[in-house]
Write a structure and sequence with these properties.
The structure is a homotetramer.
Chain A lengths: L1 E8 L7 H9 L3 E10 L4 E9 L5 H15 L2 E5 L9 E6 L4 H11 L6 E7 L5 H6 L4 E3 L9 H10 L4 E4 L8 H6 L5 E5 L11 H7 L4 E8 L10 E8 L6 H25 L3 E4 L2 E4 L4
Parallel strand pairs in A: 5-6, 5-8, 6-7, 8-9
Antiparallel strand pairs in A: 1-3, 1-4, 2-3, 9-10, 10-11, 12-13
Helix pairs in contact in A: 1-2, 3-8
Chain lengths: 286, 286, 286, 286
């Protein structure tokens, strides 16, 4: 069974050793290790992907819990192979309702085979959406929409989510939060074509470049900004010369972005794609 | 009647004065003037767009011919409003036959309302295409495919073409050639999305960036590289994760690029777009 | 004598005709014409550079004043060859005092041969600097530092400045203001190396890219963003690995930027560089 | 003692397990693990940085040799703390002699404390340089200058070099070669400012952007292109407007590049900088 272990701690002394020592002692095959050291923010993290017999999963969880308690590490153990039912999603929102609405409808209609475990906003705007689909709602932002990411991750943990979906959630996740759900569990919708238009205003930038093609990108979030693009799906639309930016924005936000997110999430929950050494690969890994 | 005058000469002393003096003396309204000075290559050029009564067109041509002879300037006078029949095209090719073939078929079937006046290659590869559609053929390249652009422009002049279509023509037109047919008369197909992928290998670059969207761009050529993008049409296609570059290239070259060029040329010959102060604008200008 | 005429108006009907008609009628040699059409903002502009006998300068000014009044155009006539004394500068500031202070000292000590005609701030911060050097001071910003550019240009006009120096002035000049002082009369200090680091936070971006070289760029402002770089002077400094951003900022702001602006302004007022068809060229033009 | 282990193999099954198992069994502290999977080229690699008591170094080497033989892995063990004398350099060249010449002189004069163990060219051009300084010379290129990187690495191994210096060596090292000497042992001189000018013709590109600043960058090579910049030293020079490209090239190649490489190599051999989780950090690591 494929198992992902993520560990985050305040220094890199002894972060890797006890975990690696345990899993090699259990006869696990190590498929991938990534270690990082954000010295400036005192953040040290490791991602471990291993193959281990299913019956050793629970003992592994217990051992990791013990190591975490002893060494003051935040450790998570997860396997996409474990859950019997549908994958559980946390859907994070800010202001725009189109993409979370489209995702909820696709789940309701069976086009995306997943369980909407919780809907979260750093603004209250999408609360009615959660009520409409009878999904638990948490507002995590303060009056300026600023989020305590530890609280956010605690909600992910509480609802035992498999994947986190950022549906035009307009805040940058902290590196620590990314690491805690590392390994291809955080899916973002970016409202421009990556890597060409990475900023906060991709429509405006493409418009300023006088483009006639606009797009959206559904991708995995990885903690390291330098790690390149982990694109799951991209969709585009074409406009005639002279179309005003307002109309382009409307088409993008109401039509193209919702489609892009739904198809991207579908690929992830169906496990048509996975994250493998920072790259998106097709198909299930052996 | 809208008239475009282009003038190219070896120095900028007295390039503009006689032409401007004549047209203002004729009571023309000046809609646009662009002057450039490529000092490093001793190339000086001017583009003038004016409104003038139709009956003054022929005297203007004669006067410009006289000024050109006297001042050693290469002057061209052209109006999109003049020709009674279909616009005449020069179709320039190198190796890939897909885009010129698609354009010839679209013309034959009436989807693009134009006259293929001449087909040109800097390689002999597309000659059979010209023969198939019974269009005059000129091979302008030497053994390495290098082109004398003065010879190329002489062919454009000889066939009295209205527009020059670069159908995966893989050589850079000299600035002088661009100026001689300036004002929105040269249309290029670029096999990547502009401005993001401007180079010679846009498929490879998008692939290296792990994109799942590929595109092509049909645009006007303007002489100045800094002038921004003059995009007439862009089209894209989406691929699943894991598709090999060979297959992506095949889809792009055989399907997306031909579609992109045909739609772009259609927009130009129908005058749905025009070049106006280096920008593509929709609709006919008053 | 070289003369620059700039004209700005609300539409492009009849913008160019009367001006061009007059100057060609006076026997002027036209060295450069640039016309632009910002249709979206209803801004139409022309820059004309001509050679004309000195005795025709005053009649030209009068004629242009009459045309401007009649046609509702904002026309300015200027010649770098006219003024008997030192070139007059408007020095625009926001918060940082280092660059205007360095420039004032260089003028006082005779290293930059210019007259500080007026100092302007969109914030009151640099007022004491103006008082120290006994230069007239105008604060043009509202409470948020927002500037009415027509008021700003009126001050330039009132003080009959030859050049406008943006000394870490942190507001973007409107296109209309740029056109009114077009032709190489507006000099900006950008606190990063252009074109690589064009944004508002070039130190932060170079730091994020882990560079060990930081720089500043003194350049002419031209109205068109696509027109490329008009660099007058660039200077850099090198830091050892591990230097903190705070210390880098300090070195850049207190040492490198002031040096860069002073040398750039010196080159301009000495006419070692000029703007010629959007490019910086060395030496005086014939 | 800090020890670096690099391992390269043809698949990722069992690449990491035996090595990690051994070192954790020896009580090593794991400071850094990087694993990579270049599936397209069937290249799997790991970099391990550990702390281990000095007396366990030789047993570790022997054990790694045994694992390498058994598992068909190419394993290298290296410690910057081990060698009693000066660090040994392999200096790789192509055509330009300025940078290797400057480095040889700096070594001869004691400004760079290193041993030039071997000089290598993929072209014969710099052979006389090796002869002049009585350094062993190997020409590794075929008639087109193409290099078999396994042969190249074998020379590094044969001469037991600590660092590989690419002194305007104009070929891209294969990913496998980079991994075999991973961990901050390969130093390159790039003849432009990174990250702004990464291509093969950085002078030409900066010139086309009309810059007045040119630079060179000395940096560590890391196998992953996405990993960002590992800059050791950058140096620049400024030119006046109007300087021709030929003269700029001359200044850059004859003066700035040699200085940049010498200072960069000095920092590396003095261990003023080290590579730590893909980043250059100042000072020796504890």
């Amino acid at each position: 069974m494929q198992i992902t272990i993520s560990a985050v701690g305040p220094d890199n002394r002894g972060l890797a050793d006890p975990i690696i020592h345990y899993v090699t002692g259990q006869g696990a095959n190590i498929a991938e290790i990534q270690m990082y050291d954000h010295d400036e923010e005192c953040l040290f993290a490791m991602l471990l992907r291993i193959e281990l017999a299913r019956e050793r999963y629970e003992p592994l969880r217990a051992a990791m819990r013990a190591i975490g308690d002893e060494k003051q590490l935040s450790i998570r153990v997860w396997s996409p192979d474990l859950r019997p039912g549908k994958p559980r999603l946390a859907i994070c929102t800010t202001l725009r309702p189109e993409t979370p609405l489209a995702l909820m409808r696709a789940i309701r209609d069976g086009r995306v085979r997943a369980e909407p475990a919780v809907m979260i906003g750093n603004r209250p705007t999408c609360r009615s959406l959660a009520e409409q689909f009878e999904v638990p709602w948490h507002c995590v932002g303060d009056e300026q929409g600023v989020v305590n990411d530890e609280e956010l991750v605690a909600i992910f943990d509480q609802y035992e989510v498999d994947y986190v979906i950022l549906a035009r959630y307009m805040r940058v996740l902290s590196a620590a939060a990314c690491w805690k759900y590392a390994g291809g569990r955080i899916v973002n919708l970016h409202h421009g074509l990556l890597p060409s238009f990475p900023g906060m205003r991709p429509y405006h930038e493409a418009y300023a470049a006088r483009m006639l093609t606009y797009g959206a990108t559904c991708h995995f979030i990885v903690p390291e900004l330098d790690a390149g693009n982990q694109i799951i799906y991209q969709s585009t639309f074409t406009v005639p010369p002279g179309m005003k930016l307002d109309e382009i924005l409307r088409r993008g936000q109401e039509d193209n972005e919702p489609h892009c997110l739904v198809e991207g999430v579908r690929r992830v929950v169906e496990r048509e794609v996975q994250l493998h050494f920072h790259r998106v690969v097709a198909g299930r890994m052996a």
